[in-house]
Specification:
Methylamine Dehydrogenase, Chain H; 12 strands; 48% strand
């Protein structure tokens, strides 16, 4: 089965724009469109429209690397917002409405670089886990913006 996949697979597109290594990507369909978001050590988050192969948005408000990016199904499901959540070397987790180019929330709770984030697969993605160089894992309630554990 793998050999069949490998022999029929081909490169569809290459998205270029970051100036340093890309640290994280995510994919999601919103409003009948397909999007890829990417975070980089160049301190930026970029959103790409897969259908027309173009970058449609750029967030460069960080002073440090962007380590992990995820589309927020919670914001889309409950508020019809196109939101990306990303973690950074500046110890924060940010939520950005990329359709309206507006920062929504910032989670401060880690004391060192936040490496990874993951939304819950239950409750419409209401909960977010984050892991940090400070040797802690936080469980956040996205609805209330509070660290639960």
């Amino acid at each position: 089965m793998f050999d069949t996949f490998r022999s029929s697979s081909k490169l569809i597109n290459t998205f270029t724009g970051h100036t340093i290594a890309v640290s994280s990507i995510d994919y999601s369909p919103f409003d009948d469109c397909q999007f890829i978001c990417s975070g980089s050590y160049d301190n930026t988050v970029r959103v790409w429209d897969v259908n027309n192969n173009k970058q449609i948005q750029l967030f460069n408000g960080h002073s440090n690397s962007v380590n992990c990016v995820k589309f927020s199904q919670y914001h889309y499901h409950y508020h019809r917002q196109n939101v990306i959540c990303f973690s950074s070397g500046d110890n924060t987790i940010c939520f950005w409405d990329f359709k309206h180019n507006k920062q929504l929330q910032i989670f401060n709770g880690h004391t060192d670089c936040v490496n990874g984030i993951e939304f819950s697969l239950f409750n419409g993605g209401r909960y977010l886990c984050s892991g940090s160089w400070d040797k802690t894992i936080h469980l956040w309630d996205v609805k209330t913006s509070k660290s639960l554990h």
